[in-house]
Amino acid sequence: MVMGTTHETSTNIREKGYRFRTEIISLIATSAVLLTPLLITVSQPDLA
Fold first, then answer.
1. pLDDT digits (tens, 9 = 90+) for 2-44
2. Domain locations in the chain as residue ranges
3. Model's pTM, two decimal places?
4. Rounded distance between C-alpha atoms, residue 7 and residue 13, angstroms
């Protein structure tokens, strides 16, 4: 019983950590997509 509960807890923590990491990666990707045109516009105003 105790071993099963421990296994479930560690699996749950691992799943939460994976989900958390995925959210951070998607957030960084979204920020990069949104900021890239802005950086291009700021660094090269003659092309805008």
1. 555 666 788 888 889 889 999 999 999 999 999 998 888 888 8
2. 1-42
3. 0.53
4. 10
